[in-house]
Amino acid sequence: MDFLDVEMKVKNILVEEFQCSAETILPASRLRQELGLDEFDVIELIGNAEEECGVAILQDELPNILTVDDLVKQLKQSIPD
Question: Is the pTM of this model over 0.90?
Fold first, then answer.
């Protein structure tokens, strides 16, 4: 799974589960401030993305996930080569 596949999965989750407008979802979009997710939404998003990609992000990394790109990078790093 490449970077664009992971990014598309995250974008699809944001659109389908959180009713975010696809046009507003950019790599630099901040999950809470720009996309309107609350802390529980962010946790749900991460869990759904982990499930979709078949990986688990380390708990220590969770506070560092502030943007769409942060989440995509963490998911990509968690995928075994």
Answer: yes
